[in-house]
Structures are given as structure tokens and as C-alpha cells.
């Protein structure tokens, strides 16, 4: 799953002074391609290319007209250090699997942004010594993939670490200066009471103190007691006022620097955001000329089996009734393109999947081990013993019915 609580993310235009202030030029970076319009990067939904049963990005493009994807997540190595990895385990420097996904998307005229952070794992802002070294680590990601956009989704515990956030915002400023044209956004936690909470406000003040302004500050109005679209748009309105008061912007300027990052279907904390809620928020975002509209995640943009998934949240389906890629079409509409009119066939989890060995309360399981419990298969996300599969925030990832 992405996160237990809505979080801070910072998308930063990247470049590295320590590496020689190399400007981002499409013809120079490995795997680079011509940039899309910023509107596509602003509409790019999240996709985990290595986890949570990754869907075929090319098939999504064909079915919806989507052109941009937000690939997640780059983290510090699990063993420590200041070098970028996918999920804390796969070094970016030697990656070929994600590169193949990117090449496939670009071969069809699309492009990607890369997301840094997410819920869980260690973030580079925590392990790198200062802003310059943090920027240097992120520059490796930009150079490796020839990026035109990057997303910093910086969540707990980094979100509550002032020194780590100072490193991230400082790196963002360095990188924005050294890589002109890179699309930048910063995503932060949403609250129903104020729009964003204390840590979100501190992040904005840190950006102000450093003189850093990204393309947008995006709000995640979920996992905080949000009751549908009305609560989400209310939080976006409140967040707009915070942007005005923090940066001295008028309302229109604040909306032009504001974004929305939602969660499709059932959220981590049991809120529900079906297609009608997405349409309401999309109407709000477009009518207020907001800069970004995205969601977590495309891995979840398909129907579970049964559709409500037994009242559980999954990383691989939405837990609401839908056709495959229904939610991706709202991102396409935000980008200004009408999705294809054909309706794709839903892709629920296969009910005929064989069950793994039964879970045992006495056994010790490590990351990647698979078991069956309650007529579902489950995969361990970390070391665990005597923790029953099915807990919403437990160590087990639901792999669907068996």
C-alpha cells in the first residue's frame, strides 16, 4: 500500500551542482526523449513498475489515451547510504527492468515521471548528509532515465524530520536551477480541519525560507476522515488559503500552484472515492485552473473479485465496482484529451488461482514469502511471525482470491 496517513511529497526539478551543473537536454541523457506538455506530467497517475502486480502500461495507453505515468518509488538503500534504489533494494545505477517499462511507454509516444519517497522505507533526505548530496543522488535518476519530470512523495518518518525536509527542499532548489524545464511538484498531507496539518505547513514555510517555488504543491485529501468529494474539495479550498497566506499569492495564483493527488476506490483507512467523486474533484480542479490532478494508483485501477474485495483495501484493485482503467480516464480528461469511447474488459483477480501453502502462526516469514489464508493468497512485505494476514496495515499484501 502507499501510505497509512496522507503524506508529504516534493517533486523537484533536478540537477546537481556538485556534478558540474549539467542542464537537462533531451539529446544527452541516457534514454531521453522529447518532453510532453507539462499538462501530461501534471496528470500522470502513479504506477508501481516492479510491485503490486504491475499492469501493462502500453495497454492502458491504448485503452484510455493516457500518455504519462508516475513511476514509484525511489528510496535510499535498505542498508543505508546516499544512492537511489527502487524500493530500497534495486539500485537505479544497474536497473534494466524499469528502463524496459520506460522504453515501452516512450516507444508509443508517452513519457514518465519518477516518484521519490512513498509510505515506508528510508528516504534519501534522511540518509544523505546535506542538500547537495541529496541532489546528487536524485541527479543520478534524472540522468539514468532522461527525465523531464520528477515527484517527491516524502512521507513518514521523513515527513516529521525537519532536517530531512530541509535536505529535500534544498536539493529541489539546486536541481531546479541546474535542470531548466524539469516539471516539479511537492505533495503534502491533507486534513479535513485545515487543508493540511502542522507538518505540511512547516514544509511550505521551509520552501518559502529557501526561496523555492515548484510547479505546484499537491494535496492528498484522503486517509484522514474524508467523506467523499465534498470533504476533498473543502480541503483543497482551505489549502488554497494556506498557499495564499504563506507565499503572499492571490487566489488565482495559489490555484495555479495547487494540485490534487487522490486515491481511487477504497482508501487505506476505509474511505471510499468512487468514479462520481473523481468527476466532482476533476470539475473543481479544472474550474479553478489547478495545476495537477493525479491519483494512487494504476495498479489499483481495476476491479477486485469480488468487486468490494471483502471490505478490504488492496494494492492491486480498487475495492469498488468498475471497468478497468476507469480512473485513468479522469487524468486523461484533466490533460485535455477525450479518452477512447470503447469500454475495456474488466480484469478482476482470477478466482481460479491456486492457493499457496496455508499460513501458520508459528512459522517465521520474510519479505516475499507467500501463503494462503481466508481463501486469499498473501505475500509478506517484511519479516513477520504470528501476524494474521488480512490486517489493513499488517505485514501481508493481498494477492487476491484463490
UniProtKB/TrEMBL annotation:
It comes from the Bacteria. Gene3D superfamilies: Carbohydrate-binding module superfamily 5/12 (2.10.10.20), Glycosidases (3.20.20.80). CDD domains: ChiC_BD. InterPro entries: CBM5/12 (IPR003610), CBM_sf_5/12 (IPR036573), GH (IPR017853), GH18_Chitinase (IPR052750). It holds the Pfam family CBM_5_12. Keywords: Hydrolase, Signal. The lineage of its organism: Bacteria, Bacillati, Actinomycetota, Actinomycetes, Kitasatosporales. Residues 356-399 form the Chitin-binding type-3 domain. The keyword Nucleotide-binding does not apply. Coiled coil: none annotated. Residues 1-26 form the signal peptide. This is Chitinase. SUPFAM superfamilies: (Trans)glycosidases, Carbohydrate binding domain.
